[in-house]
């Protein structure tokens, strides 16, 4: 299996063998983090631009570290708020950056389709680091790597994704990635946070946390944005956390003893996830973050590395 | 000055004509239609053998953007686009800047049309001042100035009580109110149709119900007031059912459909090309089938383009930030001939009727007929012409079309307005 794509835009467009290649490549790069000198020359002389139109700590830092460990030159460009508030359009900014000949542009933007837009406008490779509520493929890849390491395989696994599915790019990318690898997926949340026709993505739907977490191998909690309340989607955070917050008690009563707790971060402690669960033995939330660097190294290597440098 | 269009196949639904005839035009009016008419001395002769001669096409839903947004379109460029696309008359919406909510703006548009128009222009006045949905515009004076209908198009008049009053107040003028039917509380911030594609793309969706709730409301208000309500750009199967039911019950409701709601579905949005973003949004295959059936059976009265020119910068960026709407005047006729008439989905005579006689009747406009004495507005089609849609060649100032690159057989060949061949 050879990687042939120029961009990484969505999980939806990848086939299972491409996803496995990405996960395998990331797995093989994990040991770099354990070295005393965390640097390999694979992307020496390559320029990577982190073009971030939304605030992000984890993802931006993760890509930056990944690029630097591979010896690429990494430049961060952050524009807070929408492109229009700066007076220069997103497309203009992107074209200006492209004029400086980067090899890869990593883009995070609040608009769905922003990565596709750059891919058809700029000559370089584009990595989607999250576009609106559309996709966040590297998050899905690091989730898959985490699950495979803990469970050793994907066969017959069942994952519950709980919370604001409607507004979550992570949920969409996870659903596509997991379904292609044969994982059963249940999405759960109050009906106002479940997008229409989501069953057509090949998932089951549950409107009760207790049912959704029964007998699953992984529970993935999603962050609840506070504005969902003012939009009339949920009555209160209090009610949400009462019915949808994962507590030790609910976990002990309804979930399997070997269940994994995952969360793409940042966690609203006490809302979707009780602190003792987030920090407890089931939680692999920090493993996810660590795997994020390996996944992003793998992606950058496959997109920008010359074939001879491949490990 | 006379003009004879000879040997063409004349399709004139208003006079139940379909056959090879000559059309004699004198002094800007249709003089006579008949076989092998004698050509008056000095008359200009247009040989239309192999062509289809129709009453001038009328597009009752166009945004000419002047005054105020001349960088998108002007009366001059918009009417050139109309004539190039086979339309001899357009009705222009009120969402200009300033809004066409007072007589001076109507006068300005009509004066521009008089001086620079390549096709006839019929202004539509605003229902509410500034399109704000709060107070009625000066509707009587707008009607007197020449507005042929009232609409806040682009915005839905959410206040049902106020809309009722608009319907009642305009009753004596004999012109319809045109509804942009979209309950804004059901589709706040949408970028596309709500459905499986919006779920996959993560774009905020507008459910079909956002349109249907308002269509239902407006039919009930028309029933209550006895007014004529016209539903602009009807796009859903459910709205078709509501209009069909309203008509069956004798309510004065009419409706239009756009070429894009007949020919494209939400699947087109997958490219994130903002030229697939419009209000109402592209719907599903079930909806396109329903609106086509309704157009064929007359539930939907006419075709209108909702020609909505926007500058490149308003359409090239992020999908959710992009402006709504596409241009339509220069692609509509060719699209409908190629994609509906050629495959046998819609009879040619029905298409001609929905573009000429029916919109004319709906807004009580002169034209839509080749009867003696009618204005000599004639659209001549070439059924064999093959053209690839090239936005760079548009007469419109704007290029925002999802149909670029489509190769179409059949299209407008000549446009005659007031007895004169429009030369572009």
Descriptive overview:
The complex is a heterodimer of chains A (311) and B (424). Chain A folds into two domains: 138 residues, Aspartate/ornithine carbamoyltransferase (Rossmann fold, 3-Layer(aba) Sandwich), CATH 3.40.50.1370; 152 residues, Rossmann fold, CATH 3.40.50. Chain A has a five-stranded parallel β-sheet. The longest helix of chain A is centred in the C-terminal third of the chain and has 20 residues. The model of chain A has no long low-confidence stretch (mean pLDDT 93). In chain A, helix 2 crosses helix 12. Chain A is α/β, with parallel strands linked by helices and 311 residues long. Chain A has twelve helices and nine strands. With 424 residues, chain B is of the alpha/beta class. Chain B has two domains: 98 residues, Urease, subunit C, domain 1 (Roll); 307 residues, Alpha-Beta Barrel (TIM Barrel), CATH 3.20.20.140. In chain B, the strands form four sheets. In chain B, strands 1, 2, 3, 4, 5, 16, 17 and 18 form an eight-stranded mixed β-sheet that branches. In chain B, strand 7, helix 2 and strand 8 form a beta-alpha-beta unit. In chain B, helix 6 runs parallel beside helix 7. The two termini of chain B are 20 Å apart. At the A-B interface, helix 4 of A face helix 5 of B.
Task: Offer a few descriptive terms.
heterodimer, A: 311 residues, alpha/beta, Rossmann fold, 5-stranded parallel sheet, 4-stranded parallel sheet, 12 helices, 9 strands, 38% helix, B: 424 residues, Urease, subunit C, domain 1, TIM Barrel, 2 domains, 8-stranded mixed sheet, globular
Query: What is the typical, i.e. mean, pLDDT of chain B?
Result: 97
The greatest inter-chain interface is formed by: A-B, 27 and 21 residues
> What overall geometry of chain B do the principal axes of the alpha carbons give?
globular
What fold name goes in the CATH topology slot of the largest domain in chain B? TIM Barrel
Rg on CA atoms of chain B, Å: 20 Å
**Alpha-carbon Rg of chain A, integer:** 19 Å
CATH architecture of the largest domain in chain B: Alpha-Beta Barrel
Q: How many independent structural domains of chain B?
A: 2
